[in-house]
Amino acid sequence: NAGVTQTPKFQVLKTGQSMTLQCAQDMNHNSMYWYRQDPGMGLRLIYYSASEGTTDKGEVPNGYNVSRLNKREFSLRLESAAPSQTSVYFCASSELDSTYNEQFFGPGTRLTVL
Amino acid sequence: KQEVTQIPAALSVPEGENLVLNCSFTDSAIYNLQWFRQDPGKGLTSLLLIQSSQREQTSGRLNASLDKSSGRSTLYIAASQPGDSATYLCAVPPPGGGADGLTFGKGTHLIIQP
């Protein structure tokens, strides 16, 4: 099993450009998540999808949109990239179980916005 | 709002020592707590998930404890090795459960000197 995979691994954008980060999991998990990691700020939740067909905002959703394409795939879109969105983006998945929702993370996408 | 704090922020010890990493959280109504390891430029690897009904969880040289009443968890690493050098993160799910994402501490950067 590949676990959680993310593409691309690295990306450089100019301000105003758009892009979509892709995430897929092969563990048959119901829930999927997008986080960003910034120095001094730690990991923060952008959006999550509790189950196929649902999405909800996290702590820092402004400037992003998401799509839960099917049970396996959850994409994150930047419509008009800004330098403040320079970060490392992680996708994660878990089984929807309140008492045991161990989250598994992908390798990350390192995004630079110039 | 849940807050997670990790102390110390950085730690450097000689190889072979036993060490303890600390994690505290402000809202004790959690179902579990998860410890992760992150190597430079890499994603997060789940080390241990300890449920609220457990007091301890062990994996190899790692032992995690959880005291909900005091809002604390510790990660004990026995007989440390240079390969243990990494950043260690603790994270908790939303108080009371739910599919929202985890709240993370900012991590402890650990260096094991050969």
Topology diagram in text:
The complex is a heterodimer of chains A (114) and B (114).
Chain A (H helix, E strand, L loop, with lengths): L3 E4 L2 E4 L5 E7 L5 E8 L3 E8 L6 E2 L6 E5 L5 E5 L8 E8 L9 E2 L3 E5 L1
Chain B lengths: L3 E4 L2 E5 L4 E7 L6 E7 L5 E8 L4 E4 L2 E6 L4 E6 L8 E7 L10 E2 L3 E6 L1
Parallel strand pairs in B: 2-11
Antiparallel strand pairs in B: 1-3, 3-8, 4-5, 4-9, 6-7, 7-8, 9-10, 9-11
The major β-sheet of chain A equals:
7 strands, mixed
Radius of gyration of chain B: 14 Å
How would you describe the shape of chain B? globular
- Approximate shape of chain A: globular
In terms of per-residue confidence, which ranges of chain B show pLDDT below 50 for 5 or more consecutive residues? Answer: none
Biggest interface, which chains?
A: A-B, 28 and 25 residues
Oligomer status: heterodimer
Which structural category do the helix and sheet elements of chain A fall into? mainly beta
- Number of DSSP E strands of chain A: 11
Query: How do the SSEs of chain A run, as a string of H and E?
Result: EEEEEEEEEEE
Strand content of chain B: over 45%
Q: Could you explain how this protein is built, in words?
A:
The complex is a heterodimer of chains A (114) and B (114). Chain A is 0% helix and 51% strand. Chain A is built from no helices and eleven strands. Chain A has strands at residues 4-7, 10-13, 19-25, 31-38, 42-49, 56-57, 64-68, 74-78, 87-94, 104-105, 109-113. The radius of gyration of chain A is 13 Å and the shape is globular. Chain B is mostly beta strands and 114 residues long. Chain B contains no helices and eleven strands. In chain B, strands 2, 4, 5, 9, 10 and 11 form a six-stranded mixed sheet that branches. In chain B, a hairpin with a 5-residue loop joins strand 4 (32-38) and strand 5. At the A-B interface, strand 4, strand 5 and strand 10 of A face strand 4 and strand 5 of B.
